Amino acid sequence: MVYNMTGFSLSRRDFLGTAALATSSLILPSIARAEGTLQRITKDGVVRVGVANEKPYGYVDTDGKVKGAIPDVIAAILAPHGVKELKAEIVEFNALIPGINADRFDIIGAGMYILPARCEAISFTNPVTRAGAGFAALKGNPKGVKSIAEVAAHSDVVVGTQTGSANVEDLTKANVPTDRVVLFANATEALAGLKAGRCDVIYFPSLELNELLKSANDPTVERVEGFEQIKDANGEQKYGYSALGLRKADADLTQALDAGLAELLSSGKLLEIISSYGYGKAELPDGVKTAEQICKA
Question: Which of 133, 176, 186, 216 is an S-S bond match for 171, by CB 3.0 to 4.6 Å?
Fold first, then answer.
């Protein structure tokens, strides 16, 4: 997919750093294959992006083009440095980390949250977005639950969420028994499970729920109003921070993406990009909390 992005620039020298000195158009093919990911994608103009085909994060549209808030951010950062094409690799969400470590793609562009356990397997950029979560239920919310604490307290309530997601960890920490948690491959399957009576509520990030219900346009299901967000140790609302995922060996690419991301945030371009997918100012990272801090939390 070709992006023509304007209005945003970084110094190419800053972006490539001293690693670019090792790159030459005269390098033999056998040596070129040993190049780092950053050098390869800036030379070839192509970056491979792993997506879970979920809106609004990263997906392949009916026209075959990769779209979504996260791929658009990647394109905006890399376009000034000769990257003109994003090639999408669609995998299930819980296959994204194994996939990038198997070199199936270069960047995870799926709205993946930074979690300490994930930080052991891959590197993350600093946050791209932050978000709360919510419930969807059948119309009228028959069980009446409005928090995961209430789910834990009511032995007859079953909750559905996505396998491998940060929401599973939330439910575990809230002491929701595993036999009352139904795991689905994605939000669309979870909605089908809700309607089929396999669970009483489904628990997903707010933006994903909004997109899901908008696309479904089903009057028999609704967003649960008055949902109580989980709190951190200080009693403040706990956010999930999404970022770009990379192989640990690609430290120079991670640094380059962080530099571009910081400029997008400070210039207002980040909000401009993600707002077309339903994000608002509330979903912007604060620019202070880093991936390193979140990984150590």
Answer: 176
Three-state DSSP string of 49-69: EEECCECCCEEECCCCCEECH
Do 148 and 200 reside in the same domain of the chain? Answer: yes
CATH of the domain at 160: 3.40.190.10
Rounded to an integer, what distance in angstroms lies between the CA atom of residue 274 and that of residue 73?
8
Q: State residue 201 phi and psi, 5-degree precision.
A: -140, 155
Based on the domain organization, do 32 and 63 belong to the same domain?
yes
* Domain presence at residue 231: no
The CA distance from 96 to 188, in Å, is 18
Token pair 């400070």 is found at 266
| Maximum distance among all Cα pairs of the chain, rounded to whole angstroms | 68
- Domain tally, the chain: 2
- Residue in this structure with the two tokens 């997506």, named with its chain if needed: 51
Residue 82 and residue 87: Cα distance in Å, rounded?
A: 15
Q: How far apart are CA 238 and CA 231, in angstroms?
A: 5
Helix (H) or strand (E) holding 31: helix 29-32
Around 105, how many Cα atoms within 13 Å sit in the side-chain half-sphere?
Answer: 25
Quote the pTM value: 0.76
Residue whose structure tokens are 């669309």: 188
Radius of gyration for the alpha carbons in the chain, expressed in angstroms and rounded? 20
What is the span of the domain harbouring residue 263?
A: 12-130+241-295
* Confidence band of 12 (pLDDT split at 50, 70, 90): very low
- pLDDT tens digits along 181-230: 999 999 999 999 999 999 999 999 988 998 899 899 999 999 999 999 98
